[in-house]
Each structure stands twice: as C-alpha cells, then as structure tokens.
Amino acid sequence: MEGTPGRVQKLAGRLWGEAKGPLYRNAFFIMLSSVIGIGLGFFFWVVFYRVYRPADAGYGLTLLQTVTFLSGFAHLGLGVGIIRFLPETDDRNALVNSCLSISGLLGGILALAFVLGAGLWTPELAFIQHPVYVVLIVLTGMAYSFAPILDSTVVALRRADVATWRSVLFGLVKIPLPLVFVVWFTGPLGGRMGAYLSIAVAFGISVLATGFLFLPRVLDGYFPRPRLSRRRVRPMFGFSVGNWVAGLIGSGSTLLLPLLIVRVLPAGAERAAYFYAAFTIAGLLWIIPGATMTSFLAEASQANARRARDERKAVLLSLALLVPGIAGMWFAAEIILELFNSGTGVSAIVEAGITPLRILSFASIPVFLNGLFGTRVRIRKQVLPLIAAAIVATGVTLGAGYVLLGTMDITGLAYAYVIGQAAEMPILWWAGRAPMEAEPVDLQAVPP
Question: Does 50 share its domain with 109?
C-alpha cells in the first residue's frame, strides 16, 4: 500500500505537470507580464518625477496618454481576433502581418491627425507641431498599435513568455531614459518632449525586438513586412470589430468613474484620487481571471481542443488564486493603502479607501464569471452578447454610481461597480450557458 509521502510526491508531480501545460503556462506568463510592468514601473516613476519639472512631466504624460488612447481606436479588436482565428488560418505569417499593417497604418494616421490639429483643439500642445515631433509621435502611434497584435500572436501560439520578455525589456530600458534625455539632450528632444520620449523610446525598442527577434523564434518563417491579405482578415474582421466595440463601451464603466466623482462630489478631485487608489489595487485581483480566460481562449481555438477539460482547469486556477487573494485583500487593505501615505498615523487615503477597496475586491467574483461566460461567447464567435453586456454594465455602473455617490460617497461608487458587473452576468450566462464541447477546428486553404 502506498504511503503518505508517496501520494504527496505523486500529487506534486501531477500538479507540476499541469503547471507546465500550455494553458497554465500561458496564464502564468500573462499574469507575470502585468506584475513585472507594475514592479519595474515603480522604479521608473521614482526616477521620472525626480528629474523632470512637474510641468514638463505633465505635458509629456498628457501627450503619451493621448497617443495611447488613439492607438486603442486603431487596434480594432484585431488582437482578440488573432487569438481566436490564428490557429485556423493556412498562412499565419500573412495574417499577422496583415493585422499589423492595418493597425499600424490607422495608428499612424490618427497620431498624425492629432499632431496637425493640436493647435486647434489643444493649444497647450501646439509645440508638438515641430517637424521632429511629428515624426516621433507618428512612430509612437504605430508602435502602440503594433504591441497588442504582437502580444496576442504569441498568446495564440501558446508562447505568452515572449510577451513577458517584451514587458521586461520595456521596463528595464525605460528606467534610465529620463536621465539620458535630461543630461544628453537639449532643444527639440529635451524638456517636455524628453519626458514623452523617456517612455515612448523604450516602448518602441520592446516592439521592434519582439517583431524582429522574439516572434521569428516561435513563428516559423516569420519576418515583419507590410502586407494586406483581405481573404485571411475578412473572416475575423466582424468578430474583431465587435469585440472592439464592446471593449470601448465597457471601458466607460472604469474610465469615466473619476469624472463622475468630480462631477457629483464637492471635493471631487481629492475623492477621485482616493477611489482611484482603491480601484487600482483591487484591479490586481482582476488580472487573474483575465489571464486565465485569455489562455483558455487560446487553447480552445486550437485544432481538436479539449474545451470542457481546459475550461475546468481554467476555472480551478482562477478560484485557487482568487479565493486567497480576496481574503488577503480584505485583511491587508489598511496595510496596502498605507503604502500611499507619506505621513504618520492613519492617513486620509486609508480612511476613505479601505471600505471601497474591500468592496471592490469582491467584484472579482462577477468579473471572473463574466470572463468565463464571455470566453464561451468568443469561442463560438459571437459578438452581440458582448456588446449588449457592455452597454448594461456601463449604464448600470454610471447610473447607480450617480445615485449612490450622493448618499454614500465613494463607497457607494464601489457598490455601483460591483452591481454593474453583476448586471451584465445574465446576458453573458444566457449566451454562453451551453457547456463547452470539443469542436474540431477546420483548416481551410485560402487563396492568397
């Protein structure tokens, strides 16, 4: 009869075997990319705010955030489309380059339009119409459009570790760049533009390294070049744009919350800062279901995927990490928030943010369930339920938030966010209620 040590050893071996499988491996690397980005980002911001004047830092960050926002429009949801459709195409290289060409071209055009019209709609940024700035900002817009395509491609190839290496490279390269631009550059590349380039250059280097060095190692015969294969893009275009529309609508339930606080509360700016801190910390938990379900989507899109089994594994991994994560967030909320306090004693941010943080940590439950059923919907290539769910989530969150802010301050907005996430769940459940089945992926030849 096998003893306890033998059973423990066998269980440990089985768990290690599961951890090395593509589903868990991809999920862990997706999570790791986020953790690395946050960790290395901390050191960068320490350097950044020490070497740049507040005005220059503000101009640089405003410019970067605007270009990043425009690049999100240029993405057109092609990243999630690649995860779902790349295993089905007969020419993966052509599909990847076509998506890069579409997104990069749109990103460059939107960035150029922003630069040329800056003096009209944002006079404070009229300085970016310098010829050197125009070129650099257009290139930045293209780089930020390329990155989601490249990251989604390696996830679809079950090699999310490549995206992690891109995050590491980006994080390490950008740390010394503020010093480089302050000490070595003056004129057009100094000051406020140096603040912008401290991030943009590092990001561009990480994108170039991924496209020309990392991706060819995991995608046979790949070389980045302009290409448009309409026949390969057409089957996934409607699916991609549908996900893109759902994402834009759904982003209102998060991006518009600070504006809502400022609009409703008397001391809105201060309360918005407290809420944003709690929201950002709670968002660390939401990385878990996001990563596991993205990995599950990649696995379910493979030929002859064992979808029911992989779904169970994704659910188990999510719960195994979320349950202790929620408990830890609840009990450690005060300690975590105190990290934002530069003074002594109990800070205002702890008093204001501890209850919203604890409430928002429980949003992980509907976020997880929405991710599960939403992934089922994506596997079946449906988009209307995703759009409908996003409309409901944003509408309920903003509507309930407006009401509850007036009576419960930012604690009410935390409740509103949880309610909004729960409100979209019935739509996604109804659309994805049928259990996962093993549907073979048919590889069909597509003429060039």
Answer: yes
